[in-house]
Write a structure and sequence with these properties.
Layout (H helix, E strand, L loop, with lengths): L2 H22 L3 H10 L11 H6 L4 H12 L3 H10 L6 H17 L2 H17 L1 E3 L5 E3 L3 H22 L6 H18 L8 H11 L7 H12 L5 H17 L2 H7 L9 H19 L13
Antiparallel strand pairs: 1-2
Helix pairs in contact: 1-14, 2-6, 4-8, 4-12, 6-7, 8-9, 8-10, 12-14
Length: 296
């Protein structure tokens, strides 16, 4: 056995554990054990596309791209800027979001509903006025639907580009339908159920979207000012470049984002594949998940 074989597993485990702790937070191990070990029916069985998409390393790029896209709705962005703590506690916000996704995607039906109920309670309390004077309420079904479609579109784009096993057409539609179940539970009355409906719904929101000062400030923060140690800045820059390139061209234009314009599209995309492959390799060192419960 050579030196790299001796040191490789230790490095892999350290990187995987570090990534998991940043994304899942201090209660990550406890939540993981409950999500995958608690008995009971699930909203989604092991064969469902939502598990394939949400369990892949491509979510690191898709999640950041979703934040950028969501920021283009002034009322949604004002709610985030005023109440989410994304600047003062960005890791906490990431951890809360990833925990919600994990419970609703993999957890028992009871725990998934409990996670949804908590988010709905929080949304109900979030009200305010945008800098331009528009009132907003986080529980507004119209805003909830925008956040949902921007997220689903970004997650699916990332998976199809960087996922270990991209879905076929039927799988993409099934993923959108799976995600719609969570959206309805959160208060979205009529979420899209397939790619055609998703594209049409995104197009309906286009007239409402613009890059406010809050949106541009959020983009600068998440792309150029992340609270990371120096050693992590390089990999994060790769993630950020690919998150920007993943956006629809009209969204990049609105935010005036030209991340790594001197690099060809193919080079940026290759860097994203290498990065997600490395994350996938590292996360595979975590203890295996055990789940025996059947879906509802």
């Amino acid at each position: 056995m050579n030196l790299s074989e001796k040191s490789g597993p230790g490095l892999r485990e350290r990187v995987g554990t570090s990534l998991f702790s940043h994304v899942a937070g201090p209660s990550g191990a406890q939540n993981r054990a409950r999500i995958h070990g608690a008995p009971g029916p699930r909203w989604f069985g092991p064969e469902r596309p939502i598990r394939t998409v949400h369990g892949d390393a491509s979510m690191f790029i898709g999640g950041l791209s979703a934040l950028l896209l969501q920021s283009l709705h002034p009322r949604a962005m004002a709610a985030v800027a005023g109440h989410s703590g994304f600047r003062g506690d960005p890791w906490g916000r990431l951890q809360r979001t990833s925990t919600f996704l994990a419970f609703t995607t993999y957890g028992t039906a009871e725990d998934a509903q409990r996670a949804v109920d908590h988010v709905r309670e929080v949304h109900e309390r979030i009200r305010g006025v945008t800098p331009s004077g528009e009132p907003y309420h986080a529980a507004d079904p119209h805003l909830l639907c925008w956040v949902h479609v921007a997220e689903v579109d970004s997650f699916l784009r990332a998976h199809q580009r960087f996922g270990a096993g991209p879905l076929d057409g039927a799988g993409c539609d099934a993923y959108i339908a799976d995600a719609a179940r969570v959206a309805r539970a959160l208060g979205v009355p009529d979420p899209p159920l397939d790619r055609t409906a998703l594209a049409a719904r995104l197009a309906l929101y286009r007239p409402e979207l613009r890059a406010t000062s809050q949106a541009r400030d959020a983009a600068r923060f998440v792309l150029h000012e992340p609270p990371l140690p120096r050693a992590a800045r390089g990999p994060y820059a790769v993630l950020a470049s690919n998150a920007v390139r993943l956006l629809p061209p009209w969204a990049r234009a609105l935010l005036d984002l030209r991340t790594a314009p001197y690099l060809p599209e193919g080079v940026v995309r290759l860097s994203g594949r290498v990065l997600t492959g490395t994350i996938r390799w590292a996360m595979a060192a975590l203890p295996p998940r055990e789940e025996t419960a059947a879906p509802r």
